[in-house]
Amino acid sequence: MSAAAIGSAELTALLPIVTLGTTAVVVLLWIAFRRNHAEAVWLTLGGLSATLLALAPAAGTGPRDVTGLLRIDGYALFFIALFCLAAIIVVLLARDYLRERAEQPEEFYLLLLTSLLGASVLAASTHFASFFLGLETLSISLFPLIAYATRDARALEAATKYLVLSGVASGFLLFGMALVYAETGSLAFGGTAPAATAVLQAGAVLILVGVGFKLSFFPFHLWTADVYQGAPAPVTALLATVSKGAVFAVLLRYGVDAPLARLPMSETVLGTLAGASMLIGNLAALAQHNLKRLLAYSSIAHMGYLLLAVIAMQRIGPALAAETLGFYLAAYTLTTLAAFGVMTAMSPADREAEEIGDYAGLFWTRPAIALLLTLSLLSLAGIPLTAGFIGKFYLFIAASHAALWPLLGLFVVGSGLGLYYYLRVIFRMAASVGEGTAPGPSGALQVSLGTEAALAFLGLSIAVLGLLPASLIDFLAAEALR
Amino acid sequence: MNVDRVQVESLVPLAIYFLLVLGVVGVMLAIPRFVAQRRRSQARDEPFESGILSVGDTHLHLGVHFWPIAIFFVIFDLEAIFIFAWAVAVREVGWPGYLEMLVFVSVLLAALVYLWKLGALDWRTRRQQLQDSLLSERG
Amino acid sequence: MQGLLPLIPLCPLLGCLALIFGQGLMPRRAVPWVGAGSVGLAALLTGMVGGQFLGGSLEPVTVTLWTWLRSGELGPDFALYLDALSLSMLFIVTGVGFLIHVYSAGFMADDPGSARFFAYMNLFVAAMLILVLADNLVLLYLGWEGVGLCSYLLIGFWYQEPANGAAARKAFVTTRVGDTALALGLFLLFTELRTLDIQPLMEAALNHWTSGDPTASLAALLLLGGAVGKSAQLPLQTWLPDAMAGPTPISALIHAATMVTAGVYLIARMHSLFELAPDVLLLVAVVGSVTLLMAGFSALTQTDIKRILAYSTISQIGYMFLALGVGAWPAAVFHLMTHAYFKALLFLGAGAVIHSYHHEHDIFRMGGLRQRLPVAFWSFVFGSAALMALPFTSGYYSKHEILLAAYAGRGGAWLWAGGLFGAMLTGLYSARLLFVAFFGRANTHASEQLGLSMKLPLFVLCGLSLLGGFWVIPLASVFGETAVVPHPPDGIGLISTFAPLVGIAIAAAFYWQRLYSSDNLMASSLGQPLYRLWFSGWGFDWLYARAFVEPFKWFARINQRDGIDGVYRGIAALARAGHAQASAAQNGRLRWYVASLVSGAVLVVALGAWW
Are C397 and C485 a contacting pair, CB within 8 Å? Predict the structure, then answer.
């Protein structure tokens, strides 16, 4: 813990996180002196690229504990890389989105960088202090991001709801940490207690409540749809991918490291949350006609699916669980970004293309965009030849190895329900232009080359991960998750 | 570590406490229904502030600048606590600690510069700002 | 040569893809060039490959392209197999196919869907080539289904007419019955012999089974089921007359020259297996001879020019089955070849008549077309001569061989007599068609307007129908020398030569010189029901409608709201109710959300404690 423990190797290991922090400060000062949208974008992109480059030397130092708060290993670096990639795409999307809408778009990138900093710390944290700090850095950056369109009453409402509910959830989280600390006397994940007392157990469950809120498990899921709908589409993309991915990363690490997460009751609790989330998320999405809300409900279900990997971890071992989680989150991140990217590209300057009716006949008017959204929805539904299928397949294998039969049954039921509402959107897109009520929002945003490149990359990677999953799987198994 | 199921007996006090809380709240909510008079009059519906009748509108126009400044004060004040903590252990942490604190303070400084350039520390209202700029143009 | 072989099916496949993806981009004039050109290229390649093969030792060649799929012991390669038998088929499919494509360029010139037409045609040729070149039964099955699909698509080519769609559906469903039998046969063969590669399979069958083994008979019977479906033999022959709803070149290519003979090819290809099942082989012969007679009688009563030819096709394939059944494999393949020439010629000639005469099909409304449509007339003369097996035409040699083999075969005189009577019938109905449509009083206003692209194939096919009998691909390397037929007494040959002449004489008496009236015959108390029976194709459609279609429809009707549907409706209703519940919780109120969060937390803690 002492400062003297930081040598050059530790600094190298921390390099990605340090680069992110430095970029945030540089962007902050740059905005203070030169307020220019394009320059802020380029600085942010440069900093994110530098972070990606810094991953290589950091990986070279091997798994390493830094200051007792963070562990920089393949697992953490993989997620940092994933988040940086997602952030680059969000930057490209936001650039087009904010150009027409925001008076001062530059701070968006600053907040994006700080939220990314929080997410990166979360992915590497092995200690309650870094856990909480990372989570709060992430959340507090997200509040203003959600409310970034300050003239939109719905955005303000969403931000307020998220703020208040996050506060409540953080309270539960802190209370849980305090109870655990009271029993174990250590804030590190690995702290042990002499006996599984009720206090310890209550602490563990309360931590789950706090985490479950962020991941929007049933019954802590009610905020999801409202916040997704209110936030600007690029922010929703960030919220759905980076925020959830980071919390899941820390949840799995907590599950692996902390012996108290392996209490027999935690399997019951997690199983109940997972099963209920799968069912409720899919049911709520069933007749939804707002695409943003639909994706919000579907994310509840997806988080439920993903919880299977964490539950199965106790029986199949951390390596396979981490591999499953890594692949699924990568696939889910790319897919969700693609969906919200399409939404951003489709939105006119005065509103967002969030109704399914806005996409009627899209195949005939903008076939490339329609194809990408179709690919993304099929991947979310887990249709073969997409990344989402491989992810689901992985989960299925993991859950069946762990013999989680009732949950597996719910998984299948949920996927069946999911197919219904994903295909509904696709059918709507294939409807001929005459049939639909609205032929897509008129005057959709002028899409820049950057957005086009980002969307093309997303479509390509969903297909490649679906066709040649071995490329990522081998990497995950060999390198990333040691 | 004993990972067997926790004895339910140890939770009995907690459960009793929880039920007691529920009971007390329920009783408190129920009492007025039986005891209080149900009558409406103008005087009854007035807001009551420690015996003083309220006057005027509650929607006061406070300068919005007041709030950010207050928040900045609290934030920077809190950051100072970290410097106090460092000061206590300054010999133990040595030069690396000094460097860390330097980084911390410079990040704070950067934030202050940002706020300053943003005009967040400017006390004037928008109208005053406009007048000042007109004056400086004439001058 | 090995390198060229895979290109043969590839050419039409590429043509098909080019036509599909070039739709709208390709100029209209280019469509027939691509369509016919790709098949022409395949024909050219076949010529080169065939020349080399026939010049060599006639040793079979196998070209393995890649392993198609692998599942346990089943690992069929995508492999092509060339021997004298598949080469014969190759010549027919590409050669006759090319001529018909050229003809179609003229025939379909004004049709708005000509690109679609040529795309389907090319796809058909590709599938047929895969069928005949397949080295294993799985690949053969792929081609088998491919040609079935193309047949369906092309029968219903003019899909605006509901009757055409119905005919296409009928063809598809009826052949599907046979296809199912074939698939079962493949499963049986695989479970018994653990391979589906044809040559190893034949060897394994010879080692594994003795003659008359029940399993071998069952496998042969199932394959026969597939063959009768595809080749429109009893009892699955009902679809072919209706299939004439498609454009006439389709009838020539698919429903006369190539696809319908796939059943014959299948049995010839699997002849070792059938030799192990003599009873089934006898059944093949019986099916063939009964079919040829029944179809002959039906042809006698039809008035639609294409339906006459369709029944004639069924009848001629019956001859091929007869030849297969008596073990005269080369004779069957020989007749397959000559039949492809003259029946393609007849259909294309019929197409010329229809094309020149406002799409009229009824021969009794024609008459005297001899002068007005000389090209069509001479096509019919040559084609009918070969069909009737008049001496020195191509049909004579092949049919003669079949009749001689039938006389010497196991069924003996009965099969021979059937074939002989069939030959007489052939003469009768062919001459009837010729006399009614082309002779007599000219009561039409038809004028022949045939482009070169339509005339040229007719000329070439005329030549082939006349002289095709002199060119035989030696099949001994495939079927063995023992298949050579012993010579029966000379009298038998003489009788079979004269049988068609009897038919022609009767037809001349009735329809040319009009010495007797056919109307009186039809009106007689015996003639009327017989006429109706034959005209309706022996009432099979009626029988099948009563026995299968209507009970099925009835069952479907009473089963409309069954319990199983109820389960699914229940699931849907349950899901909807769940959705209503789940979305009712989303009321947008913050305090409700917080309350839910907190009570959720309490519940979760309670759940944890309870456990």
Answer: no
